[in-house]
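Lecture notes, unit on protein representations.

Consider one protein chain, 288 amino acids long.
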Amino acid sequence: MDNHKNNEVKQFGYCAIIGRPNVGKSTMFNALLGHSVSIVTRKAQTTQTEIMGVVTDFPYQYVMLDTPGVQSRLKRRTKLNRVAAKSVFEADIALFVVAGSQWNEDDEAALQVLKDFDGPVIGCVNKLDKLSSAPERMAKAIDALQSRYAFEKILTLSALRKLHMDLLHQEICDAMPFGEAQFPVDIVTEHDDAFLIQEMVRAKLLEFLHEEIPYDLCVSVDLEKIVKDVRHIYVTIWVNSPTQKAVVIGKGGSKIKQIGSQARLMMEKHFDYPIFLKTWVKVGAPSE
Protein backbone atom coordinates (compact mmCIF):
# COMPACT_ATOMS: atom_id res chain seq x y z
CA MET A 1 0.00 0.00 0.00
CA ASP A 2 1.15 3.57 -0.69
CA ASN A 3 0.35 4.39 2.90
CA HIS A 4 2.98 1.97 4.08
CA LYS A 5 5.63 3.70 2.00
CA ASN A 6 5.42 6.67 4.34
CA ASN A 7 5.86 4.33 7.29
CA GLU A 8 9.59 4.15 6.81
CA VAL A 9 12.34 4.91 9.29
CA LYS A 10 14.89 7.32 7.86
CA GLN A 11 16.64 8.37 11.06
CA PHE A 12 17.89 5.94 13.71
CA GLY A 13 20.07 6.23 16.79
CA TYR A 14 20.63 5.70 20.50
CA CYS A 15 19.66 7.88 23.47
CA ALA A 16 21.15 7.36 26.96
CA ILE A 17 19.44 8.64 30.12
CA ILE A 18 21.97 9.65 32.79
CA GLY A 19 21.55 10.93 36.34
CA ARG A 20 21.85 10.02 39.99
CA PRO A 21 19.34 7.66 41.66
CA ASN A 22 15.76 8.84 42.19
CA VAL A 23 15.67 11.75 39.74
CA GLY A 24 12.97 10.05 37.64
CA LYS A 25 15.03 8.43 34.86
CA SER A 26 12.93 5.25 34.69
CA THR A 27 9.68 7.25 34.80
CA MET A 28 10.97 9.36 31.91
CA PHE A 29 12.01 6.22 30.00
CA ASN A 30 8.52 4.72 30.40
CA ALA A 31 6.78 7.99 29.50
CA LEU A 32 8.73 8.23 26.23
CA LEU A 33 8.22 4.54 25.51
CA GLY A 34 4.55 4.37 26.50
CA HIS A 35 5.10 1.08 28.35
CA SER A 36 6.34 0.17 31.82
CA VAL A 37 9.49 -1.61 30.72
CA SER A 38 11.93 0.11 33.04
CA ILE A 39 10.96 -0.74 36.58
CA VAL A 40 9.89 2.26 38.64
CA THR A 41 9.85 2.18 42.45
CA ARG A 42 10.47 4.73 45.19
CA LYS A 43 13.65 2.82 46.03
CA ALA A 44 16.96 4.29 44.87
CA GLN A 45 19.13 2.23 42.51
CA THR A 46 16.31 -0.02 41.29
CA THR A 47 17.83 -0.22 37.82
CA GLN A 48 20.78 -2.61 38.09
CA THR A 49 21.49 -3.09 34.40
CA GLU A 50 21.08 -1.17 31.19
CA ILE A 51 17.39 -1.38 30.24
CA MET A 52 16.63 -0.98 26.55
CA GLY A 53 13.47 0.36 24.94
CA VAL A 54 12.66 1.11 21.30
CA VAL A 55 10.57 4.11 20.21
CA THR A 56 9.32 4.26 16.61
CA ASP A 57 7.61 7.43 15.41
CA PHE A 58 7.95 7.59 11.62
CA PRO A 59 10.32 8.60 10.16
CA TYR A 60 12.31 8.18 13.40
CA GLN A 61 13.36 5.20 15.49
CA TYR A 62 15.52 5.52 18.59
CA VAL A 63 16.73 3.11 21.25
CA MET A 64 16.59 4.41 24.79
CA LEU A 65 19.09 3.18 27.33
CA ASP A 66 17.93 3.60 30.94
CA THR A 67 20.99 3.31 33.16
CA PRO A 68 21.69 2.68 36.85
CA GLY A 69 21.78 5.87 38.89
CA VAL A 70 25.34 7.12 39.27
CA GLN A 71 26.59 7.41 42.85
CA SER A 72 29.84 8.84 44.17
CA ARG A 73 29.93 6.78 47.37
CA LEU A 74 30.22 3.06 48.05
CA LYS A 75 32.64 0.78 46.23
CA ARG A 76 29.92 -1.70 45.34
CA ARG A 77 28.37 0.99 43.12
CA THR A 78 31.41 1.28 40.85
CA LYS A 79 30.16 -1.56 38.63
CA LEU A 80 26.80 0.21 38.21
CA ASN A 81 28.56 3.50 37.42
CA ARG A 82 30.55 1.68 34.70
CA VAL A 83 27.29 0.39 33.17
CA ALA A 84 26.04 4.00 32.99
CA ALA A 85 29.31 5.21 31.43
CA LYS A 86 29.28 2.41 28.82
CA SER A 87 25.74 3.38 27.77
CA VAL A 88 26.78 6.96 27.11
CA PHE A 89 29.50 5.92 24.70
CA GLU A 90 26.98 3.83 22.73
CA ALA A 91 24.66 6.83 22.40
CA ASP A 92 24.10 9.53 19.78
CA ILE A 93 22.41 11.81 22.31
CA ALA A 94 22.30 11.87 26.11
CA LEU A 95 19.69 13.16 28.52
CA PHE A 96 21.06 14.41 31.83
CA VAL A 97 18.31 14.37 34.44
CA VAL A 98 18.12 16.31 37.70
CA ALA A 99 15.30 16.45 40.25
CA GLY A 100 14.07 20.04 40.25
CA SER A 101 16.45 22.37 42.06
CA GLN A 102 18.18 19.59 44.01
CA TRP A 103 21.92 19.06 43.48
CA ASN A 104 24.39 16.91 45.41
CA GLU A 105 27.66 15.04 44.95
CA ASP A 106 25.90 12.17 43.14
CA ASP A 107 24.58 14.64 40.54
CA GLU A 108 28.17 15.82 40.14
CA ALA A 109 29.38 12.22 39.72
CA ALA A 110 26.69 11.60 37.08
CA LEU A 111 27.73 14.73 35.18
CA GLN A 112 31.34 13.46 35.15
CA VAL A 113 30.15 10.42 33.14
CA LEU A 114 29.47 12.90 30.31
CA LYS A 115 32.83 14.66 30.37
CA ASP A 116 34.21 12.83 27.29
CA PHE A 117 30.89 12.51 25.46
CA ASP A 118 30.97 14.46 22.20
CA GLY A 119 27.29 14.16 21.24
CA PRO A 120 24.54 16.62 22.17
CA VAL A 121 23.33 16.53 25.79
CA ILE A 122 19.91 17.80 26.81
CA GLY A 123 19.59 18.93 30.42
CA CYS A 124 16.27 17.76 31.86
CA VAL A 125 14.98 19.49 34.99
CA ASN A 126 12.45 16.89 36.05
CA LYS A 127 9.66 17.14 38.65
CA LEU A 128 8.38 20.41 37.17
CA ASP A 129 5.04 19.78 38.90
CA LYS A 130 6.75 20.28 42.27
CA LEU A 131 8.38 23.55 41.21
CA SER A 132 5.58 25.12 39.16
CA SER A 133 4.49 27.18 42.16
CA ALA A 134 8.05 28.41 42.74
CA PRO A 135 9.21 29.99 39.43
CA GLU A 136 12.23 31.62 41.08
CA ARG A 137 13.51 28.22 42.25
CA MET A 138 12.96 26.83 38.76
CA ALA A 139 14.90 29.72 37.18
CA LYS A 140 17.68 29.18 39.70
CA ALA A 141 17.82 25.45 38.90
CA ILE A 142 18.11 26.18 35.15
CA ASP A 143 20.84 28.80 35.70
CA ALA A 144 22.79 26.44 37.97
CA LEU A 145 22.58 23.64 35.40
CA GLN A 146 23.69 25.93 32.56
CA SER A 147 26.78 26.91 34.53
CA ARG A 148 27.86 23.28 34.96
CA TYR A 149 27.88 21.97 31.38
CA ALA A 150 27.52 23.14 27.78
CA PHE A 151 24.07 21.63 27.24
CA GLU A 152 22.55 21.65 23.78
CA LYS A 153 19.30 22.69 25.46
CA ILE A 154 17.66 22.61 28.90
CA LEU A 155 14.05 21.49 29.23
CA THR A 156 11.80 21.62 32.26
CA LEU A 157 9.38 18.71 32.47
CA SER A 158 7.48 16.27 34.64
CA ALA A 159 7.94 12.66 33.54
CA LEU A 160 5.34 11.55 36.07
CA ARG A 161 2.66 13.93 34.78
CA LYS A 162 3.94 13.72 31.17
CA LEU A 163 4.43 17.49 31.00
CA HIS A 164 6.65 18.63 28.09
CA MET A 165 7.53 15.02 27.23
CA ASP A 166 6.41 15.68 23.65
CA LEU A 167 9.04 18.44 23.40
CA LEU A 168 11.73 16.10 24.73
CA HIS A 169 10.68 13.37 22.29
CA GLN A 170 11.00 15.78 19.36
CA GLU A 171 14.45 16.93 20.51
CA ILE A 172 15.61 13.29 20.62
CA CYS A 173 14.17 12.63 17.15
CA ASP A 174 15.86 15.72 15.69
CA ALA A 175 19.23 14.51 17.02
CA MET A 176 19.03 11.10 15.35
CA PRO A 177 21.47 10.48 12.48
CA PHE A 178 20.18 9.29 9.13
CA GLY A 179 19.81 5.54 8.94
CA GLU A 180 17.36 2.69 8.56
CA ALA A 181 15.42 1.02 11.38
CA GLN A 182 17.44 -1.55 13.29
CA PHE A 183 14.41 -3.07 15.02
CA PRO A 184 10.90 -4.13 13.94
CA VAL A 185 8.62 -1.07 14.11
CA ASP A 186 6.20 -2.79 16.52
CA ILE A 187 8.83 -3.78 19.10
CA VAL A 188 9.15 -1.82 22.37
CA THR A 189 11.97 -3.78 24.00
CA GLU A 190 14.42 -6.53 23.10
CA HIS A 191 14.24 -7.89 26.64
CA ASP A 192 12.26 -11.11 26.83
CA ASP A 193 9.26 -11.65 29.10
CA ALA A 194 11.32 -13.60 31.64
CA PHE A 195 13.63 -10.60 32.13
CA LEU A 196 10.67 -8.26 32.63
CA ILE A 197 9.00 -10.68 35.09
CA GLN A 198 12.23 -10.90 37.11
CA GLU A 199 12.51 -7.10 37.17
CA MET A 200 8.90 -6.66 38.32
CA VAL A 201 9.27 -9.13 41.18
CA ARG A 202 12.61 -7.61 42.18
CA ALA A 203 11.12 -4.11 42.11
CA LYS A 204 8.36 -5.13 44.54
CA LEU A 205 10.87 -6.90 46.80
CA LEU A 206 12.92 -3.71 47.01
CA GLU A 207 9.84 -1.58 47.52
CA PHE A 208 8.38 -3.61 50.40
CA LEU A 209 11.56 -4.76 52.14
CA HIS A 210 13.44 -1.45 52.16
CA GLU A 211 16.90 -1.85 53.72
CA GLU A 212 16.29 -5.35 55.05
CA ILE A 213 17.35 -7.14 51.88
CA PRO A 214 20.45 -6.42 49.76
CA TYR A 215 20.22 -5.28 46.15
CA ASP A 216 21.95 -8.42 44.89
CA LEU A 217 18.98 -10.70 45.59
CA CYS A 218 18.08 -12.75 42.55
CA VAL A 219 14.83 -13.84 40.90
CA SER A 220 14.48 -16.73 38.45
CA VAL A 221 11.50 -17.62 36.28
CA ASP A 222 11.04 -21.39 36.55
CA LEU A 223 7.95 -21.97 34.42
CA GLU A 224 5.42 -20.13 32.26
CA LYS A 225 2.30 -21.76 30.81
CA ILE A 226 -1.23 -20.83 29.74
CA VAL A 227 -4.01 -22.68 31.54
CA LYS A 228 -7.62 -21.85 30.60
CA ASP A 229 -6.73 -18.35 29.37
CA VAL A 230 -4.70 -17.56 32.49
CA ARG A 231 -0.93 -17.12 32.29
CA HIS A 232 0.68 -19.16 35.09
CA ILE A 233 4.11 -17.88 36.15
CA TYR A 234 6.31 -19.67 38.70
CA VAL A 235 9.27 -17.75 40.14
CA THR A 236 11.92 -18.40 42.77
CA ILE A 237 13.40 -15.61 44.88
CA TRP A 238 16.99 -16.46 45.81
CA VAL A 239 18.48 -14.99 49.00
CA ASN A 240 21.81 -15.36 50.79
CA SER A 241 20.77 -16.72 54.19
CA PRO A 242 17.93 -18.32 56.19
CA THR A 243 17.56 -14.98 58.02
CA GLN A 244 16.89 -13.18 54.73
CA LYS A 245 14.47 -15.93 53.72
CA ALA A 246 12.47 -15.36 56.90
CA VAL A 247 12.39 -11.60 56.21
CA VAL A 248 11.10 -12.09 52.65
CA ILE A 249 8.42 -14.56 53.74
CA GLY A 250 7.31 -12.47 56.74
CA LYS A 251 5.15 -13.52 59.67
CA GLY A 252 2.75 -16.23 58.54
CA GLY A 253 3.77 -15.59 54.90
CA SER A 254 2.29 -12.07 55.02
CA LYS A 255 5.20 -10.27 53.33
CA ILE A 256 5.63 -12.65 50.38
CA LYS A 257 1.86 -12.63 49.87
CA GLN A 258 1.89 -8.82 49.66
CA ILE A 259 4.91 -8.77 47.31
CA GLY A 260 3.42 -11.48 45.09
CA SER A 261 0.06 -9.73 44.89
CA GLN A 262 1.60 -6.38 43.87
CA ALA A 263 3.96 -8.03 41.36
CA ARG A 264 1.02 -9.90 39.81
CA LEU A 265 -0.94 -6.64 39.37
CA MET A 266 2.10 -5.05 37.75
CA MET A 267 2.43 -8.00 35.34
CA GLU A 268 -1.26 -7.95 34.45
CA LYS A 269 -1.02 -4.26 33.63
CA HIS A 270 2.09 -4.75 31.51
CA PHE A 271 1.13 -7.96 29.68
CA ASP A 272 -2.60 -7.17 29.55
CA TYR A 273 -3.39 -10.77 30.47
CA PRO A 274 -4.80 -12.55 33.57
CA ILE A 275 -1.87 -13.79 35.65
CA PHE A 276 -1.52 -16.52 38.28
CA LEU A 277 1.80 -15.96 40.07
CA LYS A 278 3.39 -18.55 42.35
CA THR A 279 6.51 -17.59 44.33
CA TRP A 280 9.06 -19.60 46.29
CA VAL A 281 11.89 -18.28 48.46
CA LYS A 282 15.12 -20.29 48.58
CA VAL A 283 18.61 -19.85 49.97
CA GLY A 284 21.32 -20.05 47.30
CA ALA A 285 21.58 -19.13 43.63
CA PRO A 286 19.72 -20.23 40.46
CA SER A 287 22.70 -22.19 39.15
CA GLU A 288 22.74 -24.51 42.16
